[in-house]
Amino acid sequence: MTARVHAELEDAIARIIDRAGEAGLDFFDMRFEICPADIIYTFGAYGMPIRFSHWSFGKAFHRMKMDHDYGLARIYELVINSDPCYAFLLDTNTLLQNKMIAAHVVAHCDFFKNNWRFRDTNRKMVWTMAAFAGRVRQYEQEYGRDRVERFLDAVLAIHEHVDPLPDPDRGAAAGASRDGAQRPGGRAAGSDQDPYGDLWNLDRYIPAAAAPAEAPRPEGAGPGARGDASRGEPPRAEAGARGAARRPTRDLLLFLLERAPDLEDWQRDILSSVRSESLYFRPQLETRIMNEGWASLWHARIMRDLDLTPEESLEFARMHAAVLAPSRFHLNPYHLGLHIFSDIEARYGTEKLFEVREVDTDVSFIRNYLTRDLVERLDLYLFRKNGDRWEVTRDHSDWEAVRDGLVRLISNCGFPYIYAEDHDYQKRGELYLRHGYEGVELDPHDLTRTLPHVYHIWGRPVHLETVEGDRPVRYTYDGHEVQRRPL
Amino acid sequence: MAVRFTVTSEDWSLHRQGQMDQERHQEKVREAIKNNLADIVSQENIITSDGRRVIRVPIRSLNEYRFRFNWQKREHVGQGSGSTRAGDVIAREDGTAEGPGRGPGAGDMPGHDYYEAEITVDDLGELIFEDLGLPHLDPRKRPDLTSRQYRWEDVRKQGLRANIDKKRTMLEALKRNSLRGVPRIHPIIPEDLRYKTWEERYRPETSAVVLAMMDTSGSMGEFEKYIARAFFFWMVRFLRSKYDNVQIRFLAHSTEAREVTEEEFFTKGESGGTRCSSVYELALRLIEEEYPPGEYNLYPFHFSDGDNLASDNPRAVELVKALLEVSNLFGYGEIDGHGAGLSYYRSSTLYSLYTREIRHPRFVATVIRSRNEVLDALRAFFGPREVAALAGREER
């Protein structure tokens, strides 16, 4: 980038920042860094300028680079939730592209700073992650690359299963365990004194407890009966005996951290660091539609207020349209988010706009503000596979079903709920997991390949109960093979 | 307070994390390919490729497995251009789109992150051939027969009298005389003289000969022919990539044997009965006429379905023994497409006959029952000797 272009970009960003401030956006100090494509792809693949090394990031990096080289996709920018806020621009972008992106990321930063889900995020995560990256390198030297890599493989396989919201009963759950107190990592018991604690955790009870109870059981004696008897009974009986003390948790990483019997310190560090990275990224997954919609809304407005030449206006229009192009096969969050926000402003005024960006996440955003009119106008629909065809199942005339279908898809960021129920199943130190089945089955192929990863961390047999074809089934990995048993 | 900002372009050239992890990923892809080599080796698209193609091999172990929903069984959200109705088909499984608009491109549909590695046949060969070699190769054979060649490489102003380059000398004289206004070749003065110089080059001559013999009779079914060709496909590539100086002769036989071109060998089939002795006779004749055993490392390989004319068997055994007298190794590969193994039904095959009658340290026989045993056969013949010996013993 020539000095002249650099100076021009600096001037433009100054105006963009002024304009954004006037419009009411409220964001951290900004650090714009101009980088070559390779660096942008690295950050895109890792989600951060420096993160621990793992082959899966290399795989993602390779794919992004290929997509770029074949002209399939481009990343123009990357913005990091931090204070000051780091934004990385591609050095091959045109000046106009960089202007639009600057306007876009300033709005992202406003969102990071103001949306409630980001309030507790670590704004110095850049350094935390860099420090962890250094420790992983050290572990590799100390314990061997293959061992560290194998453990990272296992942790990454379940890294999505954290509980993003503080659970007042966590301490109690850990303390109530038979041997929780013996473990140095275990928390102290006795914090379950809040009489309203149950209320906060209603959503945690329901899927885990209700689903299996309602699911039909195979009848008759023989293996089925035996399986039933040896099944979830001990934990359930125990749960009854101890009242509300035992809670299933969907924070698998925390559960393993506190209870996996044979973890070494470096493994604990990895488990807990990957968990905090997951928690750090979590709000971004929960607000993808809002965040992209918000940034698109503001980049459009700010750009309109800049004095663009006719050529620049045309280029901007083209770029804006490309970002917002809808797809027949999945949702474009930029497009949907922008339309919902515009609709909110038209109906309730600008002040409401800022309130929504503060108090909602995608699930409530869709539930509250995706109207019949929008579903019709945007021609949203649900589709599914029928034989060898992908068929539309609900169209906009069934708008509530479409809205609810979308909410289902983005609930828990699209991940299934997996609850850790028992750390001492059958009194043999086995781990019992339960899928909080809500009508959508798990992929059995991936499931049988993920269980061994959990086993690697736990070190003893691991069970997962789920529902297939309306019947409960249990998968078990004992260190040698995965077995599937109908219950 | 006003928001502050900076715009900088740092030097990121030392930031290589992406590339480094990508290398680790590629390393793992290689490992995964190596672990699945037996399956990949006999893939149809490789054997029928021209050998230059990039092939795609599914690498399951490098997918990042998660607990996730079965996307085939769940509803997804899409967005149309205004008139989408329930019941509309937006795509078919084979990827063709319905109606207007573009079809789902790769990765456009809801679906799996399914990893396919790309690898060239040459790279794949490298992995397969890593620990393969011609067994019992005697480097002393024909060492002095490496032919010496002279090539006139340069023209200089000094040199040996006998090496005067007459043409260049006359041209120089002509040039010089012309400059003085007299365009002719004499007089020639010492400055005009040009000398040729030469370089000595050694061209190693073939010292190993592989005789690829294949049964192309009517009893060889699709599977048998496919396996034999898959084996020879890799054998030929292996020999050519590892050795500069191996000659391969292709012999096909039914009741009669004849030498065929490489292309014919890999494409043509025949019909009729089987007389293995015919191809052994041809091999022995070739050796006698062209490859004195004292000068050449000789490797006859014979692939068949084991089904030989019973009356020919004693002669076949005799000739294999004769070949073993002059060869570094004799390899016999029997393809058993019936999966019957060494059952009663198969007890009369060449394999059982040979392994019973021929006790020779350099006789290696192997049975191939499925596609993924092609690699085992390659290893049995060309692998490190201990391994090959084991593989050979297992069959016995």
What does this structure look like?
The complex is a heterodimer of chains A (487) and B (396). Chain A has helices at residues 3-22, 37-46, 55-69, 95-114, 125-143, 145-157, 170-175, 197-200, 202-214, 223-230, 233-241, 252-259, 265-286, 288-305, 310-323, 333-348, 350-359, 362-369, 372-378, 399-410, 444-458, and strands at residues 30-35, 77-80, 85-90, 380-386, 389-394, 418-425, 430-435, 462-468, 471-477, 482-486. In chain A, helix 5 packs across helix 6 (145-157). In chain A, 55% of the residues lie in helices and 13% in strands. Chain A has 21 helices and 10 strands. Chain A has 487 residues and is of the alpha+beta class. In chain A, the strands form 3 sheets. In chain A, strands 6-7-8-9-10 form a 5-stranded mixed β-sheet. In chain A, strand 9 and strand 10 (482-486) form a beta hairpin. Chain A has 4 domains: 3-115 and 287-324, no CATH class; 169-205, no CATH class; 215-248 and 418-487, no CATH class; 325-415, no CATH class. Chain B has 396 residues and is of the alpha/beta class. Chain B folds into 3 domains: 26-39 and 50-61 and 116-130, no CATH class; 147-203, no CATH class; 207-395, von Willebrand factor, type A domain (Rossmann fold), CATH 3.40.50.410. Helix content of chain B is 34%, strand content 20%. Chain B contains 12 helices and 13 strands. Chain B has helices at 17-35, 37-41, 44-47, 121-129, 166-179, 222-242, 262-267, 276-290, 313-326, 350-357, 374-382, 385-395; strands at residues 5-8, 54-58, 76-79, 89-92, 116-120, 147-156, 195-203, 208-215, 246-253, 257-260, 297-304, 330-335, 363-368. Chain B has a 6-stranded mixed β-sheet, sandwiched between helices. In chain B, helix 10 links the parallel strand 12 and strand 13 (363-368). In chain B, helix 4 (121-129) crosses helix 6 (222-242). The longest helix of chain B is centred in the middle third of the chain and has 21 residues, at 222-242. Chain B is flat and about 100 Å long. The model of chain B is unreliable at 97-107, 340-344 and 387-396 (pLDDT under 50). At the A-B interface, helix 1, strand 1, helix 2, helix 3 and strand 4 of A face strand 1, helix 1, strand 3 and strand 4 of B. Strand 4 of chain A pairs antiparallel with strand 3 (76-79) of chain B. Chain A: Residues 416-468 form the SpoVR-like C-terminal domain. Chain A: Pfam families: SpoVR, SpoVR_C.
